[in-house]
Amino acid sequence: MEENDKNGPRRVPWWIILVIILCALPGICFPWLGSLLTSGNTMIEGLTWFYPLYTIVSALLAWQCYGRRTLLTWIILALLLLSHGCFLYLATSLDGYANYR
How many other β-carbons are positioned within 10 Å of the β-carbon of residue 22? Predict the structure, then answer.
């Protein structure tokens, strides 16, 4: 394992940091989740408060895994984007027919 080469520890390239930040932004900026916080369902409210923490932890893990396990970084980012899609669906379908309260 070449964690330390002549120039010090391996650094994550700037473009992957940009990709990680762009993938994490929808989960950190959660004003679009406001309707979920006022839904009255405690499970949905709990998941909504947990979601920004999940997003930050996923971004940190993707950043940390890049040098040694690059494929794992892409898997974490794909799961993060899928979870963004699921929360967007949950937020938009709260007033629709999918809400079975």
Answer: 10
pLDDT tens-digit readout, 62-82: 999 988 888 999 999 999 999
Q: What confidence score (pLDDT) does residue 32 get?
A: 60
User: Which one, of 34, 27, 18, lies nearest residue 83 by Cα?
Assistant: 27
Give the residue ranges of DSSP H helices in 1-101. 14-28, 34-37, 42-65, 70-92
End-to-end alpha carbon distance in the chain: 54
Q: What is the DSSP letter of 14?
A: H
Q: Which residue in this structure is represented by tokens 């895994």?
A: 65
> What pLDDT, on the 0 to 100 scale, is given for residue 94?
66
Global pTM exceeds 0.90: no
